[in-house]
Amino acid sequence: MNGRYQVSRLCTALGVSRSGYYGWRQRRHAPCRRQRENAVLRVRIREEFEHSRRTYGSPRLARALRVGRHRVARLMRQERIWARQQSKFRVVTTDSRHNHTIAPNRLPEVKVNRCDQAWVTDATALLTAEGWLFVVAVLDLYSRRIVGWAMAAYLDADLAVGALKMALAERRPATALIVHSDRGSQFASHAYRAILHEHNLVASMSRQGNCYDNAFIESFWSSLKYELAYRQRFTSRAAARTAVFDYIEAFYNRTRLHSSLGYLSPVQFESNQ
Questions:
Q1: What crossing angle do the helices spanning 157-171 and 190-198 adopt, rounded to 10°?
Q2: Where are the alpha helices (DSSP H) in the chain?
């Protein structure tokens, strides 16, 4: 029975077969093609999001999955997937109150078209249960690859020198390479300038109070903090060191898609040159 009347009588009265009626009922409640595709895409979005260490937003997920960005963004909202969290801490790492020599900003004079033509370097701090861990990184301006870094409980010239020495050992660049930094005392120190001079490197520094002159390394710090530091609590400096090493070498340099590199990782981009 269907309500007050038998299905067979209703079908006869309407001139349709019983099989046709039941087929229509099944199709009416079945998901359409778009719904089925979205169900599959939801799974793929979740898998790719986890593969990105829960860091990719809709632009990178759309690129990785070769699907429209707006569609991915809509499904991410429905799945309650969010890539970024807000900053909780901020510490100033630039102390420009010193009497050391200040280099001019040479980056505007250079059209960067190859690796090891210009490096940018800067320092940041990560909060741990044991106190701050300071990190200095060196980034190749052409490939966006982190080519050197150093970490310690204190920010000084030795830390900046350590990161630069690692970059030099890894890359062995030709002379006239520009190394750009802010005006912090660690980058203007005698020890740091001695390393630059020893390897025939050209010093370059941002204008006073202008963070945009070193925007590329600032962008890296933003990625590291939003994609790593703000997502967990470091129980020790050693734990933070391990996490930063893993982020740089296993993820940022080798896996993470960079929109400025045509959605390639820095290692992939360099291998294509």
A1: 20
A2: 7-14, 18-29, 33-51, 58-65, 69-79, 157-171, 185-188, 190-198, 215-227, 237-246, 266-271
**Residue 105, helix vs strand vs coil:** coil
The span from the CA of 127 to the CA of 233, in Å, is: 8
pTM score, whole prediction: 0.73
Q: In this predicted model, what pLDDT tens digit does every residue of 230-271 receive, in sequence order? A: 889 999 999 999 999 999 999 999 999 998 999 999 999 999
Structure confidence by residue, pLDDT tens digits, 33-73: 777 788 888 888 888 888 887 888 888 888 888 888 888 88
The two beta strands, 131-140 and 178-181, are unpaired
Buried b (16+ CB within 10 A) or exposed e, 11-47: beeeeeeeeebeeeeeeeeeeeeeeeebeeeeeebee
pLDDT digits (tens, 9 = 90+) for 69-80: 888 888 888 888
Residue extents of the structural domains in the chain: 33-79, 107-271
Angle at alpha carbon of residue 81, lines to 79 and 86, rounded to 5°: 150
Q: Which CATH superfamily is domain 107-271 in?
A: Ribonuclease H-like superfamily/Ribonuclease H (3.30.420.10)
Rounded to the nearest 10 degrees, what angle do helices 58-65 and 69-79 cross at?
120
Task: Quote the pLDDT of residue 14.
Answer: 72
